């Protein structure tokens, strides 16, 4: 029985990004209507939460929204290139125009609660709604991570998280300490280096990847080898897959790999180990720079080895490349730095985000607050997630896997509705 005082939708989708729109598109193809609630505007994170020079790290051909692939339905002319921020939003806007979703922008969802009689009560900034099923498509980037000791840093030193970064002009003159070497950290390093700034980089444990190898982009080889088809259920080390930081490389200037050793030699980037503490103008680092560089290179060489094995198995005629060699290694580990003495006037945090699902009242979260599901389907009937990393495959949190995940989830929702699993 539905609450007559509240508007009702068979499915409510929370989040108006590519994941939310993709599920809405697939649901529409099964004849199921839905409402998308987006607290900002559609595709907000792409428009507003990326820096000016942002570009994709994976090639454009991997942009495969449901029925709207970059190099087919969209008619993109550079499948092996890497779209810039405005090009990405143009692609997304064009996808949104292929169907007519019921999108409610600037609506905040404040609480989702299962109803005793079935379905859910959804409290929003425009009032209460009810629905039979809910799809959470908000992603995992709710709360920017900054360590507690950041508060002990001298207030004269500017601090900013990568979510607020747009360009170097936001920063005062002087050097910058960038903390984190995932995909964001190394690309921001390049932004500051191009601007002629002194860059200091706290190197974490993120792995790195080749860009081009043996005549092709490394991601092309890995796709052909079936690497991206591996599911979390069949992965040899699922815990590592889920918890590992993304491999760093760049799509800038047509694509390049990032070897931090070379950036130290060629561009003067000062490298340190993982940041451990701050107080006043002083920063303390762990003595793990050499280990972190070696681990990143081990990942890099491992990917090359996978590609070599695929080439050999398939009997492909591909050009040979010289073995990897280190161009530099730290002689000592610097564990302390006075930022003021080093001319550092700002700190840029690039150490990621935490999800925040406290507004969902359902017993589907682990001790760390992360949702438990299988391919996005939780144990709470009618509650689903989409757009998260390793929902099923490596591509689940990216453009590559969203079509497969959305179609699977839409079919599951359709089956539940047809079976009367949820009574609205």
Automatic annotation (TrEMBL):
Keyword annotations from UniProtKB, A to Z: Oxidoreductase
Keyword Oxidoreductase annotated:
yes
First and last residue of the signal peptide? none
By its UniProt entry, which InterPro entries does this protein fall under?
Auxin_biosynth/cation_transpt, CHP04046_FMN-dependent, FAD/NAD-bd_sf
Keyword Zinc on this protein?
no
Question: Which terms does the record give in the GO molecular function aspect?
Answer: flavin adenine dinucleotide binding; monooxygenase activity
UniProt superkingdom: Bacteria
Which protein, by its recorded name, is this?
Answer: MSMEG_0569 family flavin-dependent oxidoreductase
């Amino acid at each position: 029985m539905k609450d007559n005082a509240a508007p009702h939708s068979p499915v409510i989708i929370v989040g108006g990004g590519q994941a939310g729109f993709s599920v809405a598109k697939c649901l529409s193809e099964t004849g199921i209507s839905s409402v998308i609630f987006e607290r900002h505007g559609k595709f907000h994170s792409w428009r507003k939460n990326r820096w000016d020079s942002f570009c994709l790290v994976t090639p454009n051909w991997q942009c495969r929204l449901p029925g709207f692939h970059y190099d087919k339905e969209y008619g993109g002319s550079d499948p092996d290139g890497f779209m810039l921020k405005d090009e990405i939003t143009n692609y997304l806007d064009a996808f949104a125009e292929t169907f007519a979703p019921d999108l409610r922008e600037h609506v905040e969802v404040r609480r989702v609660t299962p109803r005793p009689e079935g379905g859910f009560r959804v409290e929003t900034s425009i009032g209460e709604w009810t629905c039979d099923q809910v799809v959470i498509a908000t992603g995992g980037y709710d709360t920017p991570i900054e360590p507690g000791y950041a508060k002990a840093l001298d207030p004269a030193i500017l601090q900013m998280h990568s979510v607020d970064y747009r360009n170097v002009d936001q920063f005062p003159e002087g050097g910058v300490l960038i903390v984190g070497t995932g995909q964001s950290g190394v690309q921001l390093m390049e932004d500051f280096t191009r601007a002629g700034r002194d860059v200091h980089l706290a190197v974490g444990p993120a792995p790195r990847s080749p860009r081009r190898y043996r005549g092709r982009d490394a991601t092309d080889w890995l796709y052909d080898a079936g690497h991206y088809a591996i599911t979390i259920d069949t992965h040899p080390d699922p815990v590592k897959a889920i918890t590992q930081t993304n491999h760093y490389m760049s799509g800038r200037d047509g694509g390049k790999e990032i070897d931090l050793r070379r950036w130290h030699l060629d561009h003067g980037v000062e490298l340190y180990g993982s940041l451990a503490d701050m107080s006043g103008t002083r920063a303390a680092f762990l003595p793990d720079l050499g280990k972190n560089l070696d681990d990143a290179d081990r990942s890099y060489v491992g990917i090359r080895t996978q590609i070599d094995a695929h080439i050999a198995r398939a009997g492909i005629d591909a050009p040979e490349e010289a073995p990897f060699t280190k161009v530099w290694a730290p002689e000592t580990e610097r564990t302390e730095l006075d930022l003021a003495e080093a001319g550092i006037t700002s700190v840029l945090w690039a150490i990621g985000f935490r999800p925040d699902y406290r507004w969902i009242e359902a017993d589907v979260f682990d001790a760390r607050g992360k949702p438990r599901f299988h391919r996005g389907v939780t144990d709470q009937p009618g509650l689903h997630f989409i757009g998260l990393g390793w929902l099923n495959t490596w591509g689940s949190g990216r453009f590559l896997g969203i079509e497969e995940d959305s179609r699977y989830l839409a079919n599951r929702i359709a089956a539940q509705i047809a079976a009367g699993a949820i009574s609205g």
